[in-house]
Amino acid sequence: DGGITQSPKYLFRKEGQNVTLSCEQNLNHDAMYWYRQDPGQGLRLIYYSQIVNDFQKGDIAEGYSVSREKKESFPLTVTSAQKNPTAFYLCASSIENTGNTEAFFGQGTRLTVV
Amino acid sequence: SQQGEEDPQALSIQEGENATMNCSYKTSINNLQWYRQNSGRGLVHLILIRSNEREKHSGRLRVTLDTSKKSSSLLITASRAADTASYFCATDFYNAGGTSYGKLTFGQGTILTVHP
Fold it and tell me: Does B100 touch chain A (CB under 8 A)?
């Protein structure tokens, strides 16, 4: 089955720790995105990548880092510099940039600071 | 800042009624998309309407776009309890140079509750 997979579904982080969220797609999509969603809020763009080995900051990139070494993978690291990381994180991909195509979303990772 | 703003924030209706949600945006867009999110899940794409289109249909969904008013509406006809979800509009808009940014900007969503 083709799709986009996020793992883990739930993640708990201690204060001061870095954690990495996984996002893998087998749709052969060029573009991938990371969004953050807070309760009752819309999605805010963290980082996006339109091609392998290239990525751009979104609206709220501070405290996050990404890599795009492979077409199918776009991991997100939440660093200790992110002061309020508790949120629902969504990864998405699209055939090309969303100028012309829909985005496909994973099922999300819920990150909680303990 | 978020590009799209949905209205109303919450909508509660009975099964069989129609549901209308509105989205307003601020700058010139390349396209506007509507997505659905069930509680605690990822988003599912519903429909994409381009800036040169005025109306699109997909099953019980009807989307309109008025670029002069910078607004769009999503109509769900004959609603069902299974339509209960959050609905988001998302825009891919142009930069000052006239090219698409190639990224979607989402509104805060409308929470739709359909009572059986």
Answer: yes
